[in-house]
Amino acid sequence: MTVVEKINQVPFVDLKSQYDSIASEINNAISNVIHSTAFILGRDVSLLEEEFAAYCEVEHAVGLDSGTSALEMILRAYEIGPGDEVITAANTFIATALAVTYTGATPVLVDIDPMTYNMDVTCMERAITERTKAVIPVHLYGQPADMDPILDVAQRHNLIVVEDACQAHGARYKGRRVGSIGHAAAFSFYPAKNLGAYGDGGMVVTGDGEIAETIKILRDVGQKEKYVHALKGYNHRLDNLQAAILRVKLEYLDEWNAARRQHAQLYNELLAGSQAVAPEVPDYAEAVWHLYVVRVGERDAIRGKLWDNDGIGTGIHYPIPIHLQPAYRELGGKPGDFPITERYAERILSLPMFPELTPEMIAYVVERLNSLLPA
Ligand SMILES: Cc1ncc(COP(=O)(O)O)c(C=O)c1O
Protein backbone atom coordinates (compact mmCIF):
# COMPACT_ATOMS: atom_id res chain seq x y z
CA MET A 1 0.00 0.00 0.00
CA THR A 2 1.38 3.43 -0.87
CA VAL A 3 1.55 6.25 1.69
CA VAL A 4 -1.22 8.05 -0.17
CA GLU A 5 -3.53 5.07 -0.02
CA LYS A 6 -2.85 4.61 3.67
CA ILE A 7 -3.95 8.14 4.48
CA ASN A 8 -6.76 8.15 2.01
CA GLN A 9 -9.11 9.62 4.60
CA VAL A 10 -8.35 13.03 6.01
CA PRO A 11 -11.22 14.35 8.10
CA PHE A 12 -11.84 18.05 8.34
CA VAL A 13 -11.44 17.82 12.14
CA ASP A 14 -10.73 14.84 14.36
CA LEU A 15 -11.92 15.27 17.93
CA LYS A 16 -11.55 11.59 18.71
CA SER A 17 -7.78 11.45 18.29
CA GLN A 18 -7.44 14.45 20.61
CA TYR A 19 -9.61 12.77 23.23
CA ASP A 20 -7.57 9.56 22.91
CA SER A 21 -4.38 11.50 23.66
CA ILE A 22 -5.69 12.78 27.02
CA ALA A 23 -8.45 10.27 27.81
CA SER A 24 -7.41 9.33 31.33
CA GLU A 25 -7.12 12.95 32.48
CA ILE A 26 -10.48 13.82 30.95
CA ASN A 27 -12.19 10.77 32.41
CA ASN A 28 -10.80 11.61 35.84
CA ALA A 29 -12.00 15.19 35.62
CA ILE A 30 -15.50 14.08 34.62
CA SER A 31 -15.60 11.45 37.31
CA ASN A 32 -14.53 13.94 39.98
CA VAL A 33 -17.36 16.31 39.12
CA ILE A 34 -19.91 13.52 39.12
CA HIS A 35 -18.69 12.26 42.47
CA SER A 36 -18.76 15.77 43.92
CA THR A 37 -22.27 16.37 42.44
CA ALA A 38 -21.27 20.04 42.06
CA PHE A 39 -22.87 20.42 38.65
CA ILE A 40 -23.89 24.09 38.71
CA LEU A 41 -21.30 26.86 39.15
CA GLY A 42 -18.95 24.51 40.98
CA ARG A 43 -15.31 24.86 41.80
CA ASP A 44 -14.13 24.03 38.27
CA VAL A 45 -16.06 26.98 36.84
CA SER A 46 -14.34 29.47 39.15
CA LEU A 47 -10.92 27.84 38.70
CA LEU A 48 -11.31 27.83 34.93
CA GLU A 49 -12.30 31.49 35.08
CA GLU A 50 -9.11 32.29 36.98
CA GLU A 51 -6.95 30.17 34.72
CA PHE A 52 -8.47 31.42 31.49
CA ALA A 53 -8.23 35.05 32.62
CA ALA A 54 -4.53 34.50 33.37
CA TYR A 55 -4.08 32.77 30.01
CA CYS A 56 -5.67 35.72 28.21
CA GLU A 57 -3.69 38.19 30.33
CA VAL A 58 -6.82 39.94 31.59
CA GLU A 59 -8.19 40.44 35.05
CA HIS A 60 -11.66 38.91 34.88
CA ALA A 61 -13.34 35.97 33.19
CA VAL A 62 -16.94 34.76 33.44
CA GLY A 63 -18.03 31.31 32.24
CA LEU A 64 -21.12 31.18 30.03
CA ASP A 65 -23.03 28.44 28.26
CA SER A 66 -21.91 29.48 24.75
CA GLY A 67 -19.97 32.05 22.78
CA THR A 68 -23.26 33.48 21.56
CA SER A 69 -24.39 34.09 25.16
CA ALA A 70 -20.98 35.58 25.93
CA LEU A 71 -21.41 38.15 23.15
CA GLU A 72 -24.99 38.90 24.14
CA MET A 73 -24.21 39.27 27.85
CA ILE A 74 -21.38 41.71 27.11
CA LEU A 75 -23.69 43.88 25.01
CA ARG A 76 -26.40 43.74 27.67
CA ALA A 77 -23.94 44.57 30.45
CA TYR A 78 -22.99 47.69 28.48
CA GLU A 79 -26.72 48.44 28.23
CA ILE A 80 -26.87 48.20 24.48
CA GLY A 81 -30.42 47.72 23.28
CA PRO A 82 -33.26 48.98 21.09
CA GLY A 83 -32.35 51.98 18.96
CA ASP A 84 -28.62 51.26 19.14
CA GLU A 85 -26.42 50.10 16.29
CA VAL A 86 -23.49 47.72 16.54
CA ILE A 87 -21.02 47.36 13.67
CA THR A 88 -19.50 44.03 12.70
CA ALA A 89 -18.16 42.21 9.64
CA ALA A 90 -20.47 40.75 7.00
CA ASN A 91 -18.52 37.50 6.76
CA THR A 92 -18.74 36.28 10.33
CA PHE A 93 -20.61 33.33 11.83
CA ILE A 94 -24.23 34.37 12.24
CA ALA A 95 -23.99 34.31 16.06
CA THR A 96 -22.08 37.60 16.05
CA ALA A 97 -25.05 39.35 14.47
CA LEU A 98 -27.64 37.33 16.41
CA ALA A 99 -26.17 38.45 19.74
CA VAL A 100 -26.75 42.05 18.67
CA THR A 101 -30.28 41.28 17.54
CA TYR A 102 -31.15 39.54 20.82
CA THR A 103 -30.51 42.78 22.70
CA GLY A 104 -32.91 44.67 20.44
CA ALA A 105 -30.06 46.61 18.80
CA THR A 106 -29.39 46.53 15.06
CA PRO A 107 -26.34 44.86 13.54
CA VAL A 108 -24.67 47.06 10.93
CA LEU A 109 -22.49 45.06 8.58
CA VAL A 110 -19.34 46.15 6.80
CA ASP A 111 -17.00 44.64 4.21
CA ILE A 112 -13.66 43.02 4.96
CA ASP A 113 -10.01 43.62 4.28
CA PRO A 114 -9.04 41.41 1.29
CA MET A 115 -5.81 40.21 2.91
CA THR A 116 -6.95 39.32 6.43
CA TYR A 117 -10.66 38.57 5.88
CA ASN A 118 -11.30 40.76 8.95
CA MET A 119 -13.29 43.97 9.25
CA ASP A 120 -12.06 46.80 7.03
CA VAL A 121 -11.55 49.73 9.36
CA THR A 122 -12.29 52.33 6.66
CA CYS A 123 -15.65 50.65 6.01
CA MET A 124 -16.23 50.52 9.75
CA GLU A 125 -15.64 54.23 10.18
CA ARG A 126 -17.95 55.04 7.27
CA ALA A 127 -20.73 52.98 8.88
CA ILE A 128 -20.72 54.96 12.15
CA THR A 129 -23.85 57.00 12.86
CA GLU A 130 -25.04 58.81 15.96
CA ARG A 131 -26.77 55.55 16.99
CA THR A 132 -23.60 53.47 16.89
CA LYS A 133 -22.72 52.25 20.38
CA ALA A 134 -20.31 49.40 19.81
CA VAL A 135 -18.19 47.59 17.30
CA ILE A 136 -17.43 43.87 17.20
CA PRO A 137 -14.21 43.00 15.41
CA VAL A 138 -14.10 39.24 14.79
CA HIS A 139 -10.73 37.48 14.91
CA LEU A 140 -11.88 35.21 12.13
CA TYR A 141 -10.18 31.87 11.47
CA GLY A 142 -7.87 32.54 14.46
CA GLN A 143 -6.32 35.57 12.77
CA PRO A 144 -6.36 38.75 14.91
CA ALA A 145 -8.16 41.75 13.47
CA ASP A 146 -6.01 44.88 13.11
CA MET A 147 -7.02 46.27 16.50
CA ASP A 148 -5.04 49.53 16.75
CA PRO A 149 -6.87 51.40 13.97
CA ILE A 150 -10.17 49.95 15.22
CA LEU A 151 -9.47 51.16 18.76
CA ASP A 152 -8.43 54.53 17.45
CA VAL A 153 -11.69 55.05 15.52
CA ALA A 154 -13.72 53.62 18.41
CA GLN A 155 -12.11 55.99 20.88
CA ARG A 156 -12.80 59.01 18.70
CA HIS A 157 -16.47 58.02 18.45
CA ASN A 158 -16.82 56.79 22.01
CA LEU A 159 -17.69 53.22 21.05
CA ILE A 160 -17.44 50.03 23.09
CA VAL A 161 -15.11 47.50 21.46
CA VAL A 162 -16.21 43.89 21.89
CA GLU A 163 -13.77 41.35 20.52
CA ASP A 164 -15.37 38.25 19.04
CA ALA A 165 -12.51 35.88 19.88
CA CYS A 166 -14.64 32.75 19.47
CA GLN A 167 -12.17 31.38 16.89
CA ALA A 168 -8.96 32.75 18.32
CA HIS A 169 -8.02 31.30 21.73
CA GLY A 170 -4.39 32.19 22.33
CA ALA A 171 -3.79 34.39 19.26
CA ARG A 172 -1.70 37.51 19.75
CA TYR A 173 -1.89 40.99 18.23
CA LYS A 174 1.37 42.93 18.52
CA GLY A 175 2.30 40.63 21.38
CA ARG A 176 -0.99 41.03 23.24
CA ARG A 177 -3.43 38.18 23.65
CA VAL A 178 -6.68 38.66 21.77
CA GLY A 179 -9.39 39.21 24.32
CA SER A 180 -7.20 41.60 26.30
CA ILE A 181 -7.40 44.46 23.82
CA GLY A 182 -10.99 45.75 23.66
CA HIS A 183 -13.41 46.53 26.49
CA ALA A 184 -14.44 42.87 26.67
CA ALA A 185 -14.22 39.72 24.58
CA ALA A 186 -16.25 36.60 23.93
CA PHE A 187 -14.84 33.10 23.49
CA SER A 188 -16.67 29.96 22.39
CA PHE A 189 -15.84 26.48 23.63
CA TYR A 190 -17.86 24.75 20.92
CA PRO A 191 -16.22 21.30 20.59
CA ALA A 192 -14.25 21.97 17.40
CA LYS A 193 -12.75 25.25 18.60
CA ASN A 194 -9.03 25.47 19.47
CA LEU A 195 -10.16 25.07 23.07
CA GLY A 196 -13.32 23.00 22.83
CA ALA A 197 -15.63 21.53 25.45
CA TYR A 198 -17.58 18.27 25.13
CA GLY A 199 -20.74 20.23 24.54
CA ASP A 200 -21.47 23.97 24.47
CA GLY A 201 -19.61 26.55 26.50
CA GLY A 202 -18.30 30.09 26.36
CA MET A 203 -16.44 32.76 28.32
CA VAL A 204 -16.31 36.52 28.66
CA VAL A 205 -12.97 38.09 29.50
CA THR A 206 -12.61 41.73 30.44
CA GLY A 207 -10.48 44.14 32.37
CA ASP A 208 -13.64 45.86 33.60
CA GLY A 209 -14.57 44.46 37.02
CA GLU A 210 -18.04 46.02 37.04
CA ILE A 211 -18.93 44.49 33.70
CA ALA A 212 -17.66 41.09 34.85
CA GLU A 213 -19.79 41.37 37.99
CA THR A 214 -22.89 42.34 36.02
CA ILE A 215 -22.40 39.39 33.66
CA LYS A 216 -22.03 37.03 36.64
CA ILE A 217 -25.40 38.22 37.84
CA LEU A 218 -27.00 38.17 34.39
CA ARG A 219 -25.87 34.59 33.65
CA ASP A 220 -27.39 33.27 36.88
CA VAL A 221 -31.04 34.35 36.62
CA GLY A 222 -30.16 37.82 37.83
CA GLN A 223 -29.18 36.74 41.34
CA LYS A 224 -26.13 37.64 43.34
CA GLU A 225 -27.55 36.15 46.48
CA LYS A 226 -29.72 33.04 46.26
CA TYR A 227 -33.32 33.97 45.39
CA VAL A 228 -32.64 37.70 45.51
CA HIS A 229 -32.92 38.85 41.91
CA ALA A 230 -31.30 42.20 41.25
CA LEU A 231 -31.77 41.92 37.49
CA LYS A 232 -34.03 40.06 35.06
CA GLY A 233 -31.23 37.68 34.22
CA TYR A 234 -30.89 34.49 32.19
CA ASN A 235 -29.83 30.92 32.60
CA HIS A 236 -26.54 31.13 30.73
CA ARG A 237 -24.21 29.41 33.22
CA LEU A 238 -21.23 27.33 32.13
CA ASP A 239 -21.62 23.69 33.23
CA ASN A 240 -19.16 22.56 35.88
CA LEU A 241 -18.57 19.33 33.91
CA GLN A 242 -17.56 21.33 30.85
CA ALA A 243 -15.36 23.57 32.99
CA ALA A 244 -13.55 20.53 34.41
CA ILE A 245 -12.92 19.21 30.88
CA LEU A 246 -11.78 22.63 29.70
CA ARG A 247 -9.32 22.95 32.60
CA VAL A 248 -7.60 19.76 31.44
CA LYS A 249 -7.55 20.95 27.83
CA LEU A 250 -6.32 24.48 28.64
CA GLU A 251 -3.01 22.94 29.74
CA TYR A 252 -2.51 21.70 26.19
CA LEU A 253 -3.75 24.74 24.30
CA ASP A 254 -0.36 26.30 23.56
CA GLU A 255 1.02 22.96 22.38
CA TRP A 256 -1.99 22.39 20.13
CA ASN A 257 -1.81 25.94 18.76
CA ALA A 258 1.88 25.44 18.01
CA ALA A 259 1.00 22.26 16.09
CA ARG A 260 -1.63 24.19 14.11
CA ARG A 261 0.98 26.84 13.33
CA GLN A 262 3.36 24.21 11.99
CA HIS A 263 0.62 22.70 9.86
CA ALA A 264 -0.22 26.13 8.44
CA GLN A 265 3.42 26.72 7.61
CA LEU A 266 3.64 23.40 5.77
CA TYR A 267 0.42 24.12 3.87
CA ASN A 268 1.87 27.53 2.92
CA GLU A 269 5.10 25.99 1.68
CA LEU A 270 3.41 23.25 -0.29
CA LEU A 271 0.86 25.65 -1.80
CA ALA A 272 3.53 28.04 -3.14
CA GLY A 273 2.88 28.39 -6.87
CA SER A 274 -0.54 26.72 -6.62
CA GLN A 275 -3.69 28.23 -8.11
CA ALA A 276 -5.19 28.00 -4.62
CA VAL A 277 -4.62 31.31 -2.82
CA ALA A 278 -3.09 30.60 0.59
CA PRO A 279 -3.82 32.81 3.62
CA GLU A 280 -1.44 35.62 4.51
CA VAL A 281 -0.65 36.77 8.03
CA PRO A 282 0.40 40.38 8.64
CA ASP A 283 3.48 41.08 10.77
CA TYR A 284 1.40 42.25 13.71
CA ALA A 285 -0.36 38.91 14.09
CA GLU A 286 0.36 35.60 15.70
CA ALA A 287 -2.51 33.55 14.32
CA VAL A 288 -3.74 30.32 15.90
CA TRP A 289 -5.20 28.78 12.76
CA HIS A 290 -8.61 27.73 13.93
CA LEU A 291 -9.20 27.34 10.21
CA TYR A 292 -6.86 27.18 7.23
CA VAL A 293 -8.79 28.85 4.42
CA VAL A 294 -7.70 29.02 0.78
CA ARG A 295 -9.47 30.57 -2.19
CA VAL A 296 -10.14 28.58 -5.34
CA GLY A 297 -12.27 28.85 -8.46
CA GLU A 298 -14.95 26.16 -9.03
CA ARG A 299 -14.93 25.72 -5.25
CA ASP A 300 -18.04 23.57 -4.91
CA ALA A 301 -17.00 21.09 -7.61
CA ILE A 302 -13.51 20.81 -6.10
CA ARG A 303 -14.92 20.31 -2.63
CA GLY A 304 -17.19 17.53 -3.87
CA LYS A 305 -14.35 15.75 -5.66
CA LEU A 306 -12.01 16.00 -2.67
CA TRP A 307 -14.58 14.23 -0.56
CA ASP A 308 -15.99 11.74 -3.08
CA ASN A 309 -12.73 10.68 -4.70
CA ASP A 310 -10.07 11.34 -2.10
CA GLY A 311 -11.78 11.10 1.29
CA ILE A 312 -10.73 14.65 2.22
CA GLY A 313 -13.14 16.63 4.41
CA THR A 314 -13.35 20.40 3.93
CA GLY A 315 -15.61 23.23 5.10
CA ILE A 316 -16.87 26.64 3.97
CA HIS A 317 -16.73 29.46 6.51
CA TYR A 318 -19.11 30.90 5.45
CA PRO A 319 -21.02 30.24 2.24
CA ILE A 320 -23.65 32.98 2.68
CA PRO A 321 -22.70 36.40 4.09
CA ILE A 322 -24.96 37.70 6.86
CA HIS A 323 -26.62 40.40 4.73
CA LEU A 324 -27.81 37.73 2.26
CA GLN A 325 -29.11 35.32 4.90
CA PRO A 326 -32.90 34.80 4.84
CA ALA A 327 -33.01 35.47 8.60
CA TYR A 328 -31.61 38.97 8.01
CA ARG A 329 -33.91 40.05 5.19
CA GLU A 330 -34.99 42.92 7.46
CA LEU A 331 -31.58 44.56 7.01
CA GLY A 332 -32.39 45.09 3.32
CA GLY A 333 -29.06 43.65 2.15
CA LYS A 334 -28.61 42.82 -1.52
CA PRO A 335 -25.93 41.27 -3.70
CA GLY A 336 -23.19 43.79 -4.39
CA ASP A 337 -23.38 45.49 -0.98
CA PHE A 338 -20.09 43.97 0.23
CA PRO A 339 -18.10 42.96 -2.85
CA ILE A 340 -15.08 41.40 -1.14
CA THR A 341 -17.13 39.38 1.31
CA GLU A 342 -19.37 38.17 -1.51
CA ARG A 343 -16.53 37.33 -3.91
CA TYR A 344 -14.75 35.40 -1.17
CA ALA A 345 -17.91 33.56 -0.09
CA GLU A 346 -17.93 31.87 -3.51
CA ARG A 347 -14.28 30.87 -3.39
CA ILE A 348 -13.25 30.12 0.18
CA LEU A 349 -12.46 26.54 1.14
CA SER A 350 -11.35 25.48 4.62
CA LEU A 351 -8.84 22.62 4.43
CA PRO A 352 -8.39 20.01 7.18
CA MET A 353 -6.88 21.67 10.26
CA PHE A 354 -6.50 20.16 13.70
CA PRO A 355 -3.45 19.61 15.92
CA GLU A 356 -3.18 15.88 15.23
CA LEU A 357 -2.84 16.29 11.43
CA THR A 358 0.38 14.76 10.06
CA PRO A 359 2.73 16.16 7.41
CA GLU A 360 1.76 13.20 5.19
CA MET A 361 -1.89 14.11 5.45
CA ILE A 362 -1.13 17.74 4.56
CA ALA A 363 1.00 16.71 1.58
CA TYR A 364 -1.80 14.45 0.41
CA VAL A 365 -4.42 17.20 0.73
CA VAL A 366 -2.29 19.67 -1.24
CA GLU A 367 -1.41 17.10 -3.89
CA ARG A 368 -5.07 16.20 -4.45
CA LEU A 369 -6.17 19.84 -4.36
CA ASN A 370 -3.54 20.85 -6.92
CA SER A 371 -4.52 17.95 -9.17
CA LEU A 372 -7.98 19.54 -9.45
CA LEU A 373 -6.75 23.06 -10.25
CA PRO A 374 -5.40 24.46 -13.51
CA ALA A 375 -1.59 24.16 -13.60
C1 LIG B 1 -16.94 34.00 15.10
C2 LIG B 1 -17.90 33.30 16.02
N1 LIG B 1 -18.72 34.04 16.79
C3 LIG B 1 -19.59 33.46 17.65
C4 LIG B 1 -19.67 32.09 17.76
C5 LIG B 1 -20.69 31.53 18.68
O1 LIG B 1 -20.20 30.61 19.59
P1 LIG B 1 -21.12 29.43 20.14
O2 LIG B 1 -21.31 28.44 19.03
O3 LIG B 1 -20.34 28.87 21.27
O4 LIG B 1 -22.40 30.04 20.58
C6 LIG B 1 -18.83 31.30 16.98
C7 LIG B 1 -18.79 29.83 17.08
O5 LIG B 1 -19.55 29.03 16.82
C8 LIG B 1 -17.93 31.90 16.08
O6 LIG B 1 -17.14 31.18 15.30
How do the helices and strands line up, and which of them pair or pack?
Blueprint: H1 3-6, H2 15-21, H3 23-36, H4 43-56, E1 60-64, H5 67-77, E2 85-89, H6 94-102, E3 106-110, H7 121-126, E4 132-136, H8 147-156, E5 160-164, E6 172-173, E7 176-177, E8 184-188, E9 202-206, H9 209-219, E10 223-225, E11 228-229, H10 240-250, H11 253-271, E12 285-286, E13 292-295, H12 299-310, H13 339-347, E14 348-351, H14 359-371
Parallel strand pairs: 2-3, 2-4, 4-5, 5-8
Antiparallel strand pairs: 1-9, 6-7, 6-12, 8-9, 10-11, 13-14
The structure holds pyridoxal-5'-phosphate (PLP).
Task: Please give a structural write-up.
This protein has helices at residues 3-6, 15-21, 23-36, 43-56, 67-77, 94-102, 121-126, 147-156, 209-219, 240-250, 253-271, 299-310, 339-347, 359-371; strands spanning 60-64, 85-89, 106-110, 132-136, 160-164, 172-173, 176-177, 184-188, 202-206, 223-225, 228-229, 285-286, 292-295, 348-351. With 375 residues, the protein is α/β, with parallel strands linked by helices. A seven-stranded mixed beta sheet has the order 1-9-8-5-4-2-3, sandwiched between helices. The radius of gyration is 21 Å and the shape is globular. The two termini are 28 Å apart. 48% of the residues are buried. It binds pyridoxal-5'-phosphate. Residues 66-68, 92-93, 95-96, 138, 164, 166-167, 188, 190, 200, 202 line the site of pyridoxal-5'-phosphate. Pyridoxal-5'-phosphate binds next to α5 and α6.
Strand order of the largest sheet: 1-9-8-5-4-2-3
End-to-end Cα distance = 28 Å
Which stretches of 5+ consecutive residues score pLDDT under 50?
A: none
- Counting DSSP E segments of at least 2 residues, the number of strands comes to 14
Shape: globular
